Amino acid sequence: MDVFIEKFVTGPIETNSYMVTNSEKSVLIVDPSSGCEELISVVKKHQYIPEGIIITHGHFDHIIGIDEILKAFPGTAVYVHRKEQVMLRNADLNGSVMIGWRWEYKGPVSDLEEGDVRIGSFDLKVVAVPGHSPWGCALLFEKVCLCGDILFAGSVGRSDLSGGNGQLLVQGIKEKLLTLPDDTVVYPGHGGRTTIGREKRLNPYLQ
Questions:
Q1: pLDDT tens digits, residue range 129-147?
Q2: CATH code for the domain defined by 3-206
């Protein structure tokens, strides 16, 4: 089933929050930061059915919109890898204290396990690449990759925050992402999209 990706730049440090839709008018919301009014408006306008909120990793700028989404669409399940879940519940670990806001999510979460996953009407593959955060995940929908802050156009995620490891990050990118087809489109957590082929050729951190 084809999926369609729409990006919304949200939150205090211009995070890419994504809306993934399919032909069944279902939607997955990925990494909602604060200020998701436009995303919520689009979901309501088209009468999409929210089937999950997926968190690629637990840093504050990718999670502080969870409350907004749940207020608009109560009962939507929140998916995050079990090794990242503690970050949602601890403001010191998720970094929200850096912007003077002790944001924590205390609600229920569902485990996002590595491998082939079905969430609602969506089939995807979850690929864990630790190093930017303890256990960040990329989401693969055939030749589309939503990778959070693991990989950027011309760069990679920072590794100087709690749980970071630059060596593990680069190793994981090379072993798990650069082995994807060159025409795989990469949608990162900040900035513009790129492709696996472009990053293999030009990314100075991966040579």
A1: 999 999 999 999 999 999 9
A2: 3.60.15.10
